Amino acid sequence: MSIDIQTARRVAKLARIAVPEADLPELAKEFSAMLGFIEQLNEVDVEGIEPMTSVTPQRLKRRTDVVTDGGQPIEILANAPDAREGFFAVPKVVE
Hints:
Number of helices: 3
Distance between the termini: 56 Å
Structural class: mainly alpha
Number of strands: 2
Order of helices and strands: HHHEE
Largest sheet: 2 strands, antiparallel
Helix content: 25-40%
Strand content: under 5%
Radius of gyration: 26 Å
Shape: flat
Strand order of the largest sheet: 1-2
């Protein structure tokens, strides 16, 4: 599939990217190359192939989901610009 300059201009506008007119032909070529690569991937037969997250099978390390204070409340609050009674203090924004 080939992308023309008009399509490249439209894609750049939709992506909110300022592209000078002189760079649009090169951008169109890059988009065409990307779509060509995707077309190559679509030609690969993946029937019966299990999806994978890694090249080596491994189980993710798990820990119990327990709510804690992090074990360092004093050190954490020391970085706050304003802390009161063991909490971050923020300015009131709603009346």
